[in-house]
Amino acid sequence: MVNRVVLFVMDSVGIGALPDAEAFGDVGVNTLGNIALATGGLDLPNLQGLGLGNIDGIKGVTAVDAPKGAYGRSDEVSNGKDTTTGHWELAGLHVTEPFNTYPEGFPEEIISAFEEKVGRKVLGNKPASGTVILDELGEEHMKTGYPIVYTSADSVFQIAVHEEIIPLEELYKMCEIAREIMTGDHAVARVIARPFVGNVGAFTRTPNRRDYSLDPFGETLLDIAKTAGLDVIAVGKIEDIYNGHGVTEAIHTKDNMAGIDATIDYLKKNNRGIIFTNLVDFDAKYGHRRDAVGYKKALEDMDQRIPEILNAMGPKDVIIFTADHGNDPTYKGTDHTREYIPIVVYGDAIKGNVNLGTRKSFADIAATISDLLEIDNTGKGESFKNMIIKD
Ligand SMILES: O=P(O)(O)O[C@H]1O[C@H](CO)[C@@H](O)[C@H]1O
Ligand SMILES: [Mn+2]
Ligand SMILES: [Mn+2]
To answer: Where do the Metalloenzyme domain residues begin and end (predicted)?
Structure first.
């Protein structure tokens, strides 16, 4: 009997190119493997003890003799390599129609509608790295008060403003306006507030980022669990990714360590259902910034805290460590990479040393969680509960 599942997403921690990676512009990508190569190796004793290094085809971490958990990797059915797509598939949806992207910037009619509604002109309107575009346009923004609008290879409409030039409330209002415009034919996966502070040449982004997602197009694992009367606790940006759907309680955390703290706090509380955590620093602070050394340290810092997480678990708790896409910091550009995700499952009720092989869809995780909690499933994905549960 399983009472609670912790679904722990290490954002962007991919483990090697998917068979179709080339169609996404990704050749030879391997977030974990290439970080290990570039930095002289990864020290992840706790994840390795659970079986991370035993996963088929994994590079950069070593296998142990008798891993304490079940382990595997998964292919992605959905047509995309962004956070929304990855998380929706993890929760049991297949995103076969990719979200709109804007490699040439947003069309004139979109920009003019936005400018008219917010009462300001905009700067930028092109794909860019969020830190590079501040260096380029931050000063002009401070002089004119025009928000910086930019996108990336992801399906995103991002608005960057200096917190002392445009108050946060106004930025959030702008995002709501953009969210209304970017629907229908221009359904973008996310509108994102990207506030920053500081002086010219030394701008830094603040934790007041906010994501405005589309509603999931179908019922997810979260909705099903909530309807069944279970707790669905969202830690980090999970609440945003599902636009609040199926979430019963949420906490937004400022960094990976705070996300781990919150997960442990919730594990110590009396709840039943799903604790769904996203640790985004791997992606936002190191993957997109192509900082392999920083990424390595973030991974090792997380690994050091795994014993604390496991100690907070009770006999009816199960934890699943996984990811949503890759973001190889050694690869060209600054975008995500199309990769396998790792799956490591651990708990008193779970058999150790079980190889789950290569799963066909991230949705297998949703199906397995449904099965473990004895609730309905979304109809996508195949449960591997029978392989992992102790008799
Ligand atoms: O370069 P920054 O602004 O961090 O952008 C990254 O963060 C956004 C959301 O994931 C995507 O656009 C991605 O490219
Ligand atoms: Mn992500
Ligand atoms: Mn990202």
So the answer is: 4-376
Q: Where along the chain do its domains lie?
A: 4-97+214-388, 108-213
pLDDT recorded at residue 96: 93
Say whether domain 108-213 belongs to CATH 3.30.70.1250. Answer: yes
| Each residue's pLDDT tens digit, 10-26 | 999 999 999 999 999 99
Number of neighbours of residue 347 by Cβ within 10 angstroms: 26
Q: DSSP characters for 249-309? A: EEE--SSHHHHHHHHHHHHHS---EEEEEEE-HIIIIIITTT-HHHHHHHHHHHHHTHHHH
Q: Distance (Å, rounded) from C-alpha 57 to C-alpha 218?
A: 33
Which CATH fold would you assign to the domain 4-97+214-388?
Alkaline Phosphatase, subunit A (3.40.720)
What is the pTM assigned to this prediction?
Answer: 0.94
* Mean model confidence pLDDT for the chain: 97
CA dihedral 312, 364, 50, 239 (to 10 degrees): -40
The pair phi, psi for residue 35, each rounded to 5°, is -65, -45
Q: How many percent of the chain have pLDDT more than 90?
A: 98
Pocket of ligand 1 (CB under 6 A): 83, 129-130, 152, 154, 156, 158, 192, 284, 288, 334-335
Q: How far is the CA of 61 from the centre of ligand 1 (A)?
A: 27
User: Ligand 1, from 154, 190, 196, 283: best to mutate by most atoms within 8 Å of Cβ?
Assistant: 154
